[in-house]
């Protein structure tokens, strides 16, 4: 059921962005925006997990290798995989913290930055076009 909703949302976004639809209802627009927000929220969750892995001491090579094992044959999966690798590189450029309080703050801040980046650079819209 979720797959059908995702396909319908992607089709709506594609029609809206390419101008093929002469009218878009407020409900359709709200669905599109909710879908884009959902994508960016997922990016945030991945970013937070990446930063947690980094702060827990995992080697960058192991983290990148784990990402390489994910199938990227689907265009959406491939785009997410590229984005995740970028986040891994960015996470490992951040300082390491030793206290739980600082780690938790770093994880939340990294996730928030990735959410803003997702919204600002149109990543969710790009995914919806795939």
Summed up, what is this model?
With 130 residues, the chain is mainly alpha-helical. Helix content is 78%, strand content 0%.
Can you describe this structure?
The protein has 130 residues and is mostly helical. Helix content is 78%, strand content 0%. It is built from 6 helices and no strands. It has helices at residues 2-18, 26-55, 60-68, 75-92, 100-120, 123-129. Helix 1 (2-18) packs across helix 2 (26-55). The longest helix is centred in the N-terminal third of the chain and has 30 residues, at 26-55. The protein is flat and about 50 Å long. It starts with a helix and ends with a helix. Residues 1-22 have low confidence and may be disordered.
* Residue windows where pLDDT falls under 50 for at least 5 positions: 1-22
Shape: flat
Termini Cα gap: 19 Å
User: Could you tell me the number of beta strands?
Assistant: 0
Please report the number of helical segments.
Answer: 6
**Oligomerization status of the protein chains:** single chain
The helical percent reads over 70%
Reading the helices and strands in chain order gives HHHHHH
Indicate the structural class.
mainly alpha
The biggest beta sheet is recorded as: none
Overall mean pLDDT? 81
User: Gyration radius, to the nearest Å?
Assistant: 17 Å
Question: What is the beta-strand fraction?
Answer: under 5%
List the topology elements.
Blueprint: H1 2-18, H2 26-55, H3 60-68, H4 75-92, H5 100-120, H6 123-129
Keywords for this entry:
disordered N terminus; 130 residues; 0% strand; mainly alpha
């Amino acid at each position: 059921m979720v797959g059908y909703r995702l396909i319908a949302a992607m089709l709506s976004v594609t029609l809206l962005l390419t101008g093929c639809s002469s009218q878009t209802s407020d409900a359709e627009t709200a669905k599109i925006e909710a879908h884009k927000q959902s994508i960016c929220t997922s990016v945030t969750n991945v970013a937070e997990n990446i930063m947690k892995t980094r702060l827990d001491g995992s080697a960058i090579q192991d983290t990148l290798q784990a990402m390489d094992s994910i199938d990227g044959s689907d265009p959406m999966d491939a785009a997410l995989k590229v984005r995740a690798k970028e986040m891994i590189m960015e996470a490992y450029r951040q300082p390491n913290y030793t206290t739980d309080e600082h780690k938790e703050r770093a994880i939340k801040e990294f996730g928030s930055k990735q959410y803003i980046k997702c919204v600002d650079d149109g990543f969710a819209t790009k995914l919806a076009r795939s």
